[in-house]
């Protein structure tokens, strides 16, 4: 895909404004935002008044302060609020401007705290586009970085899509066990004393909505404790309510990481903003030391003011509870698409985050038939837009992640539009739909 105005073959509309879950283009078309942009515009496209006022107030009061010279007052309030919502003894530590930077800082902190270099992460993962965060990434976007950033080890997490460790009929419990056994083998072969952190998304986001099965995250926590490795959970996409919990890792009983990185939902992406939180012990370590990462815009007062009010809004309006309440409808609509569309192999969903896996007529990943699949997805994407939807596409997954503020009627309307777009994908992949 190119960077020109039409992004290669995929012409994108010129958006003029937004309202709720909708966006409008310069031709007067109205689109339902099916993936909250990059799973980040969590409150939709018109912000609560308090958020706008906070930005304006902070811009007039003190638009910028460099953290090492003087902290803006709003940062103290933000720290307090974050420390209230973070479980265990997790504490807010740094506020960079993007998810990639937060991961960059989290990786540096793990290395400096442990005095070790290696980072273990998954093949099925995305952690960002800067050098270390891209090297931690497992999906193909990391290839562009080549092997220029040493110290990153990849492991497989226990997820079947077109691959199951332990064989096609293995149960979830067996997969968890074999994945953890393999992981420990890797730790021992890499040398436990060389490994700074194990880095994982709480629920795989771009990689296709994989919720880790029972026992897996607890197993990682135990391996980290056993070998003195820090557990770094990347909440960039799942944090701030997407899964029906404030943080995605709260879906796994008893798991509290040592480092947590957030972005996107912390400000609903109205301003660039992210956060690194860490355990009190790690934070204390850095009391008199640099974390080894910094940027001019970290702790930006306006970004913090917006994120503070955004978080208050999420809490006061019980957005997390709303996500839990609408999740069963979301899931039943996804199930329906699996039943109605032969090109959809299966779905996975948690909260307001879901994924449909597309299959070819042989039940395989259509991407293996590269050119034919490319054309089929191109036809589908055109229909998707014609149906009045906009969203990110990462085939063979079709992500469903509308704003957390979506109503039931809007959600049903969105699924009906998607249903019609999938008729075209069925056809383009050589199936006949069940309609
Ligand atoms: N981690 C995860 C889990 C993400 O989904 C993303 C972005 N999609 C990032 C990190 C990188 O964040 P950013 O694009 O803000 O740098």
Automatic annotation (TrEMBL):
Pfam families for this protein: Aminotran_3
InterPro entries: Aminotrans_3, Aminotrans_3_PPA_site, PyrdxlP-dep_Trfase, PyrdxlP-dep_Trfase_major, PyrdxlP-dep_Trfase_small
UniProt keyword annotations, A-Z: Aminotransferase, Pyridoxal phosphate, Transferase
Signal sequence residues: none
One Gene Ontology term, aspect cellular component: cytosol
GO function terms (MF aspect): pyridoxal phosphate binding; transaminase activity
Taxonomic superkingdom: Eukaryota
Gene3D superfamilies: Aspartate Aminotransferase, domain 1, Type I PLP-dependent aspartate aminotransferase-like (Major domain)
Family affiliation: Belongs to the class-III pyridoxal-phosphate-dependent aminotransferase family.
Name of protein: Aminotransferase class-III
């Amino acid at each position: 895909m190119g960077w020109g105005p039409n992004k290669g073959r995929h012409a994108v509309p010129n958006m003029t404004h937004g309202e709720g879950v909708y966006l409008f283009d310069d031709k007067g078309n109205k689109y339902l935002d099916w993936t909250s942009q990059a799973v980040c515009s969590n409150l939709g496209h018109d912000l609560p008044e308090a958020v706008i006022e906070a930005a304006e107030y902070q811009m007039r009061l003190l638009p910028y302060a460099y953290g090492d010279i003087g902290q803006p007052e709003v940062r103290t309030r933000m720290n307090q609020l974050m420390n209230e919502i973070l479980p265990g003894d997790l504490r807010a530590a740094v506020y960079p401007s993007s998810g990639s930077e937060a991961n960059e800082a989290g990786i540096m902190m793990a290395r400096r705290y442990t005095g070790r270099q290696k980072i273990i992460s998954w093949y099925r993962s995305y952690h960002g586009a800067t050098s270390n965060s891209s090297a931690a990434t497992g999906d193909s976007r990391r290839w562009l970085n080549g092997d220029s950033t040493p110290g990153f080890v990849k492991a497989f997490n226990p997820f079947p899509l077109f691959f199951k460790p332990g064989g096609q009929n293995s149960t979830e419990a067996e997969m968890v066990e074999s994945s953890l056994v393999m992981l420990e083998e890797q730790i021992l072969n890499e040398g436990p004393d060389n490994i700074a952190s194990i880095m994982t998304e709480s629920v795989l986001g771009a990689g296709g909505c994989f919720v880790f099965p029972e026992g897996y995250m607890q197993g990682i926590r135990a391996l980290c404790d056993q070998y003195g490795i820090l557990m770094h959970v990347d909440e960039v996409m799942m944090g701030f309510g997407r899964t029906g919990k404030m943080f995605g890792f709260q879906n796994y009983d008893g798991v509290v990481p040592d480092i947590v990185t957030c972005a996107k939902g912390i400000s609903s992406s109205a301003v660039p903003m992210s956060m690194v939180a860490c355990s009190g012990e790690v934070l204390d370590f850095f009391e008199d030391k640099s974390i080894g990462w910094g940027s001019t815009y970290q702790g930006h007062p306006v970004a913090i003011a917006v994120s503070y009010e955004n978080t208050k809004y999420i809490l006061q309006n019980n957005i997390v509870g709303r996500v839990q309440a609408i999740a069963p409808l979301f899931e039943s609509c996804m199930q329906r698409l699996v039943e109605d569309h032969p090109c959809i192999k299966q779905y996975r969903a948690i909260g307001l985050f879901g994924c449909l896996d597309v299959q070819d007529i042989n039940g395989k990943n259509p991407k293996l038939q590269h050119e034919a699949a490319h054309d089929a997805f191109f036809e589908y994407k055109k229909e998707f837009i014609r149906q009045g939807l906009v969203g990110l596409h990462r085939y063979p997954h079709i992500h469903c992640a509308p704003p957390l503020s979506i109503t039931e009627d809007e959600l049903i309307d969105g699924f009906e539009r998607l249903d019609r777009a999938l008729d075209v994908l069925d056809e383009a992949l050589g199936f006949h739909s069940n309609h």
